[in-house]
Write a structure and sequence with these properties.
213 residues; alpha/beta; Beta-carbonic Anhydrase, Chain A; 8 helices; globular; Carbonic_anhydrase_sf; Carbonic anhydrase
């Protein structure tokens, strides 16, 4: 059995943060990236965390958290917006793969959040299905504006918090797993310039909203 299967939500979160600290320090271990690991996980997977993040090319989960094959169950969309297929994918990891942690990861200079702010403030328009992405980010931007936010980091944090709340509200599977103590759901932001992650909100694990690296 994979060692990940025995991790508690707290242990899974600590494992994720430890990997980010190594990445920031420039001392990555590149665990589980060799041929032996490839053979080990070929029959079945047992990831210790779901990583639901933005599709931005600078936000590669296995790199910034210094993990390898079979460690993270990664789901990515522009602006980490959620539809039924995303929620179902996360529920699959929680219910069938027994992942003890779901992490929602946003980042500074997010194009989706920036485009939404422009649309809300200036009426800027976009073509095609990008408009759907903007519509899904709009509630976060409006909430941040109502709270008096002006900085990019505050808008990003508001969107991460909204995404976490939306997931818990829409997914009975996720909410019940958190209530039962089998799962933690955390929201974090990533700083592009230095690689650090910062906690925004947490459910099912005790943590303070401060920088973790």
């Amino acid at each position: 059995m994979d060692a990940h299967a025995a991790l508690s939500p707290k242990e899974a979160f600590e494992t994720l943060l430890a990997g980010n600290r190594r990445f920031v320090a420039g001392t990555p271990e590149h665990p589980n990236q060799d041929a032996a690991r490839r053979s080990e996980v070929a029959p079945a997977q047992s990831p210790f965390a779901v990583l639901f993040g933005c599709s931005d090319s600078r936000l590669a989960g296995e790199i910034i958290f210094d993990r390898g094959l079979g460690d993270l169950f990664v789901v990515r969309t522009a602006g980490h917006v959620m539809g039924p297929e995303v929620i179902g994918t996360i529920e699959y990891a929680v219910e069938l793969l027994d992942c003890p942690l779901v992490t929602v990861l946003g980042h500074d200079s997010c194009g989706a959040v920036g485009a939404t702010r422009a649309a809300v403030q200036d009426g800027a328009t976009t073509k095609g299905y990008v408009r759907d992405v903007i519509e899904r980010v709009t509630p976060s931007v409006l909430a941040a504006q109502a709270a008096g936010c002006t900085e990019d980091t505050d808008f990003i944090a508001a969107h991460v918090r909204h995404t976490v709340d939306l997931l818990l509200d829409r997914s009975k599977v996720v909410a019940e797993a958190v209530a039962a103590g089998r799962l933690a759901v955390v929201g974090m932001t990533y700083r592009l310039t230095d690689g650090t992650t910062h906690l925004v909100t947490a459910h099912g694990v005790e943590a303070s909203p401060v920088a973790v690296a």
